[in-house]
Amino acid sequence: MKILYDATPLLLRSAGVKNYHHALLVRLLARIRPHRLELFPFLHTVGRNRNERSNFSRIATAWRVAALLSSNYLRLPVASAAARGAGVFHVTHHLLHPPARMKLTSFIHDVTPLLMPELHTSSNVRYFRHFAARVVPRLAGIIVPSQAVKRDLLEHLRVPEERVTVIHHGVDEDFFPMGGREPKRRAYDLPDQYILFLGSLEPRKNLPAALEAWRLLPVDLRRQYPLVVAGASGWKNRPIKAQLREAKSEGVRLIGYVEPHTLPLLYGNASAFVFPSLYEGFGMPLLEAMAAGAPVVASNSSSLPEVVGDAGLLVDPRSPSEISRALQRLITDPSLAATLIQRGRRRAREFTWDKTADATKAFFESV
After folding, report:
1. Is 301 in contact with 286 (CB distance < 8 Å)?
2. DSSP code for 119
């Protein structure tokens, strides 16, 4: 069977969703036999993953994006030509007009463009609404990363339950300290102790709540455990950036986008990782932090309790005081922190990209 996989996210500037597609495709391409997996639009490799730009050269990216736009807005049969002979076309919301009369599947990371449109760009909301109205009813099968997203699909898009398959993300082995040893080298010249926030600067990640929670800590703890903010710039973040400029004078450290090879050190040396996101389809940073040995404080909403289990402290993301109390517990109780580190690593071991790839191959076969 030929499976055509829409790999458009590899051409874009993106973080979590792009990381998912890249990590999955690396494993899936290696184990898809006896089937054949081809990548749309006309990609022959997944490239080296880069969050801040396309995985491919400017020229290679430009003509493939042009092909996608020709399909979307000129209605040229670009996708139909690529899909010729395919048993399944696994699409994303970037393709507005998938070929007619062929079996379609998709991966849906979350439905926040419908549930929380104020947290997204207008173009993202527009694309997703088109996808929900025109493409989702045609899908023979849908992969989602959590039970939380499955519930949202059933409730808000009225998708038949039998069409939805939950397949969790994995975590790269690089995040686990080799031989169980703690990381010793320092990243970004950071202090020995710090509280880490990592996420794109966008409203959904809820950085203002993390800032306020840190400010609510006693003065001596703030001095001892500065807040380190990492992550690329997102959208609708002008107020967030203004708050960060003010917070720098209080001791908050801003380090911006972090290269993937540095992430295990950044997580592993943190005294606590705080992730008060308002909604996540899965929450890969939590899994990475737990694998690297950082005790975590996370939102008690959406998919995050499903990922964390009993390996972290769950809090109301809209309550800075509750987040602050959880952070204070972690950094003042070494026994609790050690217990959560141990549980976190054990929990993270349950999620592997090999499992994700095997389950995805089985999904395509069942469809």
Report:
1. no
2. G
The token pair at 182 is 């703690």
pLDDT, tens digit, for every residue of 183-198?
556 677 899 999 999 9
pLDDT over threshold 70, residue 78: yes
Residue-wise DSSP of 142-191: EEESSHHHHHHHHHHS---GGGEEE------GGGSPGGGPPP-S-STT--
Among 85, 293, 75, 47, which Cα is nearest to 181's? 293
Gap between the Cα atoms of 227 and 193, Å rounded: 10
Q: Look at residue 275 and give its three-state secondary structure.
A: strand
**Cβ distance 146 to 306 under 8 Å?**
yes
Compute the distance between CA of residue 98 and CA of residue 90 in angstroms, rounded to an integer: 10
Nearest by Cα to 230 from 204, 185, 260, 192: 260
If one counts every other C-beta atom within 10 angstroms of the C-beta of residue 174, the result is 14
Q: What is the mean pLDDT of the chain?
A: 93
Of 27-31, 173-177, 200-204, give the lowest mean pLDDT range: 200-204
Which of 322, 346, 336, 220 has its CA nearest to residue 274?
Answer: 322
* Strand-pair category, 195-198 with 272-275: parallel
Q: How far is CA 213 from CA 106, 112, 253, 317, 326, in A?
A: 38, 25, 15, 10, 9
The residue length of the chain stands at 367
Strand 139-144 to strand 104-107: parallel, antiparallel, or no bridges (unpaired)? parallel
Omega of the bond leading into 34 within 30 degrees of 0 (cis): yes
Taking residues 166-192, what's their average pLDDT? Answer: 79
Q: Which two tokens stand for residue 207?
A: 């950085």
Q: Which residues contact 246 (CB under 8 A, 6 or more apart)?
A: none
DSSP 230: E
Q: Closest Cα to residue 278, out of 341, 323, 224?
A: 323
CB 295 within 8 A of CB 337: yes
- Give the chain's domains with CATH numbers: 2-170+352-366 (3.40.50.2000), 173-348 (3.40.50.2000)
| Token pair recorded at residue 190 | 């950071």
Given this model, what pLDDT does residue 15 score? 80
